[in-house]
Amino acid sequence: MARKGSAYLIWLISLQLRAGKMPILSNTRKNVDMVVVGSGAAGSAIAAKMAAAGQSVVLLEAGPERKLSDLVSSQIWARKLKWSGSHVEEGGNHTVNHGFNAGFGSGGSALHHYGVWPRLHENDFNVRSRYGRGLDWPISYDHLRPYYDEVQSELGLSGDAKSEVWRPPGEPYPMPPLPIFKQGEVIAAGFEKLGKKTAPIPMAINSQVFNGKPPCSFDGWCDAGCPIGALKNPLVIHLAEAKRLGVDIRYGSQVSRIIAGERAKKEINAIEYYDNTGEPHKLNTKTIVLAAYTVQTARILLNSEWSDGIKLGNESGNLGKYLTTHPGISVFGLFKDETDPHFGPTGGQLICQDAYEKKDFVNGAFGSYQWLIANALKVNDYAGYAITRPDMFGRKMKAFLEKASRHVGNMLCIAEDSSSFENQITLSSHKDKFGIPLASTFHDSGPEQDKLMEHSLKEGKEIFRAGGATEVWNTPRKAIHIMGGTVMGKDPNRSVTDEYGRVHSTDNVFVAGPGLFPTSGAVNPTFSVYALAYRTADHLLNT
Fold it and tell me: Which of 90, 261, 413, 493 lies 20 to 30 Å (CA to CA) from residue 96?
């Protein structure tokens, strides 16, 4: 029968070829070593690492393919890089701002990130045991340190490790820091007068030619993806490498669920996804890596069940829990000195982490925070910042904008969030166009974080006045980055994955990305996401 079936298939194909037609074959691939979901920082890094080791890898990305030549240095264009997939319902008094923080298409959210790459601190890994709050990580800084060093050496970081007096131990940066422009110098004077230290921000942006890519030209918005390749984003690093190594990248592929069998037998060998036409596909594989960014990764697991109806990864009720973000607030000021505010990278020029190690404040505030100083303001930014001044309109607004174009300065406070079981990702009763239940998020800001933001805002305004600002104001608080929901831990009763991202109840399903973070810390997460992804890839290759 098998021989007859094969002969018939060959005969049928030959007829189609003689008729000038190509047969339509299923794109379901058998015996794939690994399926990676999501083409962002974590997903593209793991896909490239596994492909380099000779494994067959399929990478599924819900959004469209983008090329470096597609990128346009404009905030209008930058919006196209952000989430435009299935709607995410948001609740709570401090919503996670998924539409802004998530990405969609090649590179995910890492395509529109600002290149600010500080390291987590040692005290970020043991918040529960040291302070009695939140969760502990199952690893320490020492476990992650060699991967921080490997990532910065391989991909290239610019900075000045010696001037970062707060920086945890690690190798110096392979490139010198980016230059400091007038805005940075003016604001730094305020920090100095109050006895606070600043240093160049460690940036995933070239300050000189590195691996054939040019240095930053300081003429655009970093969150538009950087069309010259000076910013480290997946298009110029791991996605390019994955493509070169033969990774099968399928865009427009919305994953619905992992197909699981009996829980006792840990039967998992397939994943289901829909293409842009709405056609479902089943893809068989040995290993699955979910790197679809925080909310969507949890959504896939919540839509996946064992044969007994238990949600995959939710055996202890922790799936979707401990959702965190970074509360952020910007301080603005008009200075006596000219600031040339349009020069520099949009992520900022200088960093201050003087208060990072304190965490436990006497005024009821809790958590670390950092200042990212002198964010470059490009042409159409000014209208947006003017909106933060509701007292301005008409001629008064015109005069303000004329002065601001030469004298405005700004800096961003990024603060630590609390890890709360009540802040969570769940499934909605509503469904997307494929019939997949939507994700729903709930996130409240606690009183300790409210106090922390009050403290940092007061400090920021004092710094600006010390630096000679004649007017000082601030933006509303906003959520920056999204973490948690699939947290790692040693105890399966308090976490979803182990220290390498393996879902506790499985042998072959892994999570990658900021969803693993048990606590948020107060630094931009992308560098840590890459370090964790490298560590997971090493584990997969050596077990």
Answer: 493
pLDDT category at 383 given cuts 50, 70, 90 is low
Confidence of residue 101 (pLDDT cuts 50, 70, 90): very high
Which residues sit opposite 500 in a β-bridge? none
Segment 192-242, tens digit of pLDDT:
999 999 999 999 999 999 999 999 999 888 888 899 999 999 999 999 999
Residue 17 domain flag: no
**Residue type at 390 in one-letter notation:** P
Cα 37-255-265 angle, rounded to 5 deg: 80
User: Is 245 within the bounds of a domain?
Assistant: yes
What's the 3-state SS for 105-168? CCCHHHHHCCCECCCCCHHHCEHHHHHCCCCECCCCHHHHHHHHHHHHHHHHCECCCCCCCCCC
Contact assessment for residue 326 and residue 480, using Cβ atoms and an 8 Å cutoff: yes
Using DSSP's 3-state secondary structure scheme, residue 178 falls into: coil
Whole-prediction pTM value? 0.93
Dihedral over Cα of 531, 532, 533, 534: its sign: positive
Q: Which residues of 391-421 are buried (b: 16+ CB within 10 A; e: fewer)?
A: eeeeeeeeebbeebbebbbbbbbbbbbbbbe
The percentage of residues in the chain with a pLDDT greater than 70, rounded to a whole number, is 92
Residue with tokens 């800084």: 141
* Contact in structure between 245 and 52 (CB atoms under 8 Å): yes
313 exposure class (CB count in 10 Å sphere: 0-12, 13-18, 19+): buried
What does the pLDDT look like over 450-463, one tens digit per residue?
999 999 999 999 99
| CA–CA–CA angle 346, 349, 353 (5° rounding) | 115
Is the separation of the CB atoms in 320 and 437 below 8 Å? no
Instruction: Give the domain range for residue 357.
Output: 32-68+89-541
DSSP sequence for 59-99: EEESS----GGG--SSHHHHGGGB--SS-EEEESSS---HH
CATH number at residue 315: 3.50.50.60
- What pairing do the DSSP bridges indicate for beta strands 509-511 and 280-290? parallel
Number of compact structural domains in the chain:
1
- Of 19-28, 228-237, 529-538, the poorest mean pLDDT is in 19-28
β-pairing, 437-442 with 88-91? parallel
Average pLDDT for residues 56-83, to the nearest whole number? 90
pLDDT for residue 394: 76
Any domain includes 75:
no
Tokens of 111: 């395509």
